[in-house]
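haha ok so turns out i had the wrong file open the whole time. this is the CORRECT one, sorry everyone. sequence first:
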Amino acid sequence: MTDNDFSIDALNAARKNKSYGSPSYSTIVDYPDSLALGDTLFPLLYIYYMGDSSNKSKVGNTALFEKALSDYVLNLNGMSHSSITVEDIQLMSKKFSLLFSSACKDNPSWTWTFSNAVSTIMKKYTSRLDFNPKRPLGGGMYYKSTGTDGSSKFSTLPSIDSTNSSDVSAVMETLRILFENGLIDYNYDLGVRPINIFTGELAQENEDYTNMQSAAKYLGLPTQGIFTVNKQSKGSTMYHTFSGIDIKALASLNTTVSELDRLLQCSWSIHKGSSSTRPLGKSSSGSRAKGSRTIAGTLIFAMSDHHPLRDIIPDTYPGRKTQILNSPDTWKHLVMADEIPPFDVVLTLKNEYGKACITTIYGMEVVDEGGVLGIDNLITEIVIQYTAMGMDPITEVTLDESGEIDPFGIIQGNYSDMWRKREMIAAGVGFSDLEMDYEAQYDAIFSKLEMYRKNE
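then structure:
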């Protein structure tokens, strides 16, 4: 795609809507989504110098610019059977000049490519220029004087710094000098991919993609900038890692919280079934239907003189008690692990740098249990396999005033949201669209109770 293709649409749109006002990115609605400059000398050179009064003062031969513009318009109309006029480009040059300057600042990579291309052109044609001020008419074969008194206005070519993305003026000055001295023509190919002056991005050369942009615009869809970089802040992993000694396990059965000090390892697995829908006559599945979520894992305990899960059973729990001990105060509940009601396990992690995180597995129920006693075992273990109703992903937390993690609000004596979250998991609305509605219902109840308390 060339400059001509973009210019035709842009000029027709501007002339039709009479929108030649001052340029602003927030008000450009009358021009197409793509307007590219930079692959050929014109109209880039004309727009840059004639669209900016400060740049126009640098031009030594204005008539040459206007003559080239007329040739450009004639050539353009001859190729496209259009009716673009010189006045159209003159009216739009101011707007496009500012847009081009802004696009160069937004895309330093293109400016770097543009500078390198012009540097190559400068090395190719510099030898044909004669800057000797004592020879005002010039001694070079292709040199043409541009001063009103017949003397040269140029003492040397500008120094191009390709590492400076804002040094577009030196690049354009080089092109102007070469053009005004007749070394390059108005339709000279600069050998770079043009830049879209509306967005600062490289112009799209694929016609199909450009047509797709137009179709998306008519449908009210985004034509560009659909994908963006994630702006969410990311913390460093330094000082945010944990070892086994940093982990503490707590179990809650109803409202009783116990520490699982013999827990050696906790593993979990989350599985969500998925099945394919097979449309008739098509080999590929059109979509996949998601099933229910299953959470299961393993708890490994160090074996002692009693079952590790008996420590989480409250004293008020009904059931049999062992009577082989001397003192009734030390009697333990005698219950099988698979008879224990669903309980929660909270894993808290806190390292020596004060960083902490937490994860909770809700509604654990024992489904399998195993262990081995042998004379060759240095340590004996009890392995319990479980299923669970829900689980929270590991997330970072802030330590409380005492430097501890108190998810149940026991130390502070405050109300804990753990119970509310457990209720949502038990109701089957955890991590679903209904979770916010469930929270709103709780908030409404608490608000009314608080209002009644204040009115008493």
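The domain at 244-273+289-410 is CATH 2.30.110 (Pnp Oxidase; Chain A).
again sry for the mixup
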